[in-house]
Amino acid sequence: MSQKRFWETHVIDWEASAYEGAAAPGFLEKVASRFRGHLTVRFNMACKLLQELRPVSLLEIGCGQGRLLRRAIQEGWIQRGRGVDISTTAIENARLLARQAGLGEDCLTFQAAAVGEMDPAWLEGADAVIGLGLLQYLTDEEYAFLFGHLRGRTFAFDWHGRELSAINLMHTVYRLFRRYPFYRRFSEAQIRSLLAGYGFERPEIRREDCISMFVVRAPGSTN
């Protein structure tokens, strides 16, 4: 199954299960949904970071239905937001939910595209870039595209650790059983090496519960 097809068919139910506690369809998904509490931790970490950074403009890659961007604008952490997601379904819903929240395109816009296909101007024009649950699904070519356009920007991404744990074992078995697309895990050393390969030498590492996130600040940034 391709990444695009995966997210087109799963994003709505997945977000409802992850963030709203909705009952997931099917026995296996009901079981899996019991182990998604860490996603709320990750979302809250992103909120705390945006409260600190307060960039004028924010680009979220892998924005889903735009939950984080809407929150950031409504709370006054950012003035303008842009969201990109591989799922057309997610982007259509994000636009609808933004309109329902009274957020016009002057402050919040969306684009349906894979990372390697998105408009580079969106990356280069943002004060800050964030992605939650993104790096796990990207190819080497998409890493090159992404990090090649992030020089001079403040950006933050989380990663899924490689440590041996019951949760990681269950996650692996679950994905194999469902025949889901490839998924990458990293050690901290691998993350540092990946970033160093694109000239980012000193990422700030943040951890909370089982979530690991790195922040690279723009040169001269005071936040």
Number of domains in the coordinates? Answer: 1
Overall outline: globular
The CATH architecture name reads: 3-Layer(aba) Sandwich
Q: Which value, in Å, is the CA radius of gyration?
A: 17 Å
- Would you count the extended β strands for me? 7
Largest sheet: 7 strands, mixed
- Give the C-level CATH assignment: Alpha Beta
Task: Kindly report the oligomeric state of this protein.
Answer: single chain
Point out poorly predicted stretches: none
Query: Strand order, biggest sheet?
Result: 3-2-1-4-5-7-6
Q: Please bin the fraction of helical residues.
A: 40-55%
Order of helices and strands: HHHEHEHEHEHEHHEE
Q: Mean pLDDT, rounded to whole units?
A: 85
The helix-and-strand class reads: alpha/beta
In whole angstroms, the N-to-C terminal distance is 41 Å
CATH superfamily: Vaccinia Virus protein VP39
> How many H/I helical runs?
9
How is the CATH topology named? Rossmann fold
Strand composition percent: 15-25%
Please describe what this structure looks like.
The chain is α/β, with parallel strands linked by helices. The chain has one domain: Rossmann fold, CATH 3.40.50. Helices cover 44% and strands 17% of the residues. It has nine helices and seven strands. Strands 3-2-1-4-5-7-6 form a seven-stranded mixed beta sheet, with helices on one face. A hairpin with a 2-residue loop joins strand 6 and strand 7. The mean pLDDT is 85.
Descriptive terms for the model:
44% helix, alpha/beta, Rossmann fold, 7 strands, 9 helices, seven-stranded mixed β-sheet, 223 residues
